UniProtKB/TrEMBL annotation:
Residue stretches making up the Tryptophan synthase beta chain-like PALP domain: 9-285
Annotated Pfam families: PALP (PF00291)
Catalysed reactions, as listed in the record: O-acetyl-L-serine + hydrogen sulfide = L-cysteine + acetate
Amino-acid biosynthesis is among the record's keywords: yes
Protein's name in the database: Cysteine synthase
Keyword tags: Amino-acid biosynthesis, Cysteine biosynthesis, Pyridoxal phosphate, Transferase
Lineage start: Bacteria, Pseudomonadati, Pseudomonadota, Gammaproteobacteria, Pseudomonadales
Assigned protein family: Belongs to the cysteine synthase/cystathionine beta-synthase family.
EC number in record: 2.5.1.47
Organism name: Pseudomonas petrae
Database matches in InterPro entries: Cys_synth, Cys_Synth/Cystath_Beta-Synth, CysM, P-phosphate_BS, TrpB-like_PALP, TrpB-like_PALP_sf
């Protein structure tokens, strides 16, 4: 008998889909959550991180030992640091200095080099610095915001998994939007199966600060984003997202981050508008990488 063993990269994807129980209330709708925190580096970004590196290798654009550069608000950086460790790349990550301590520590634990920009410079400043470093010959920018291998990971992974796990009954897909890779790739696949499936994106209200999702200025809008793949966009307040995030932990045993709380808050809004729907929301990461920010300290 020959034993077959997986490596850590083989464990990306095929995450659980679980039913919302107490928070769903009295409804004819089925509310389902895709637990992406079960990926090995702890978030949905494991999928595009591995995809961007693997597919660039296959095209001969990068080779083990090269230096890779990426601007990140956190989860993509952690996932890329893991993928770089698996495959043997030097990883330089650029991120705003107001990101949580857990996110920074996770990146360096995987061996990545971290460069911080100010909160005021934000992700726009981090993206600009990554491009300058590439122009100066310091490494290759994968560019999650413009790289088609980002949504492709969800077209071949997340979308088919949801379709299979719901037996093709899914009627609504809800996802917070950052790079927009998750919603773009998943929408493309699900709409090919059933064009009537409603795709709902979450963006922060003006002034809200929800880690991992953005309301992009037009000049920084990710080029992978295609507006016609999203049927509806909801504006999400920070307090509502944080409240639902804490409720998920205390009422459902689902420990996640603020953007995931926003996705479920959007799902609960939708559930009050329709009947007999099968809704799927992305729980994009785990809550342990936000503990130092104090978001779990506030009482419900």
């Amino acid at each position: 008998m020959t034993l077959q063993y997986q490596n850590i990269a083989d464990c990306v994807g095929n995450t659980p889909l679980v039913r919302l129980q107490r928070m769903a209330g009295n409804t004819s709708n089925t509310l389902l959550l895709k637990l992406e925190g079960n990926n090995p580096a702890g978030s949905v970004k494991d999928r595009p991180a591995l995809s961007m590196i693997t597919r660039a290798e296959q095209r001969g654009q990068i080779h083990p030992g090269d230096t890779l550069i990426e601007a990140t608000s956190g989860n993509t950086g952690i996932a890329l640091a893991m993928a770089a460790a698996i495959k043997g790349y030097r990883m330089i990550l650029i991120m705003p200095d107001n990101s949580s301590a857990e996110r920074k520590a996770a990146m360096t634990a995987y061996g990545a080099e971290l460069i911080l920009v100010s909160k005021e410079e934000g992700m726009e400043g981090a993206r600009d610095m990554a491009e300058r470093m590439q122009a100066e010959g310091h490494g290759k920018v994968l560019d999650q915001f413009a790289n088609g291998d980002n949504p492709q990971a969800h077209y071949v992974g997340t979308g088919p998994e949801i379709w299979r796990q719901t037996g093709g009954t899914v009627t609504h897909f809800i996802s917070s939007m950052g790079t927009t890779g998750t919603i773009m790739g998943t929408s493309r696949f699900l709409k090919e199966q059933n064009p009537n499936i409603q795709i709902v994106g979450l963006q922060p209200m003006d002034g809200a600060s929800i880690p991992g999702i953005r309301r992009w200025p037009q000049e920084y809008l990710p080029s992978i984003y295609q507006a016609d793949r999203v049927d509806r966009i909801m504006d999400m307040g920070q307090a509502e997202a944080e409240d639902v995030m804490r409720r998920l932990a205390r009422e459902e045993g689902i420990f996640c981050g603020v953007s995931s709380g926003g996705s479920v808050a959007g799902m609960l809004r939708l559930s009050r508008e329709v009947e007999n729907a099968v809704m799927v929301a992305i729980i994009c990461d785990r809550g342990d990488r936000y503990l130092s920010t104090g978001v779990y300290d506030a009482p419900n």
